Amino acid sequence: MKRSLSLLVLIPVLLNLTVAVLSADTYSRYDFPPGFIFGSATSAYQVEGAASEDGRTPSIWDTFTHAGYANGATGDIAADHYHKDKEDVKLMAEMGLDAYRFSISWSRLIPNGRGPVNPKGLEFYNNLIDELISHGTLPHVTLNNYDLPQALEDEHGGWIDRRIVKDFTAYADVCFREFGDRVSYWTTVNEPNVFAIGGSDQGISPPKHCSPPFGTNCTRGNSCSEPYIAVHNILLAHASAARLYRIKYQGKQQGFIGLSIFAFGAVPSTNSTEDVMATQRMVDFYIGWIANPLVFGDYPDAMKKFVGSRMPSFTNHESELVRGSFDFLGVIHYSTFNVQDSPGSLDLKQRDFDII
Question: Where does the signal sequence lie (predicted)?
Fold first, then answer.
């Protein structure tokens, strides 16, 4: 029997651990400012299950896990949230969650990636949103969390093809139109930096693009260029969707749109100039890669210098579209690293957090 991926079942345990830690330090939620939102988050493939039910088609995550790259685990059943959504929402309310951020399975809502909307998929997300609201839990929606429809990956290569910008914008339009009367917070793409590194550089996550020496066992890809192309197209797709939302929906729906970045802390190992500069390069390559275009309209100078001609460039028009295309930036933070300058890191045999 295949193991299933599950995240939602961990939430009560994590919450209990959090309560224990807060209690030990004599903190409670009442020590936070009024209006502070306590919530939790999942991604569609990790919790929904029902992978081949009611018109859903495979995503790149399905392809990845069924090829055996997740040690036999799949999301075919996961936490069975598709069938247990009411039960799960009730548990969230009992836990005291103010908000719940979930992602929409693009291939459940629009099975071919573009074109007709799947009525069953639409029904599921409408019911989930209504159920959350009825229990006083604010729905936050992520449009894409690693699980691009396999149909688009097969057709044109997914995020490494510029056509994905139009596809994503049309998909976002459906979501804004159908759910925006009840959803006020939209995250377009989750962790584009880690998605590109894992999926198009190291090949350790879908769509498993890579090339030696950076990744192994990949049948296609170019680790030297594709991560930068993927992020470039994600930023353009985000900006396009944000522009659509602001022009067509935001005035009436009064919501907010943004993007989430995987952001670790970076601390120099010593006070040496070399380690301080290396730390800044790490921040540029992992965080500035996403944040700088959104704030300033272009990539960090360090990236452009070291990546060179492999780094895509924005036209003046694209730069204007991307810059300021957010109402909020989500920060996903798990840990902090000490950074040490490593002059030999340009030897392509090393790939770790201290390589820059």
Answer: 1-23
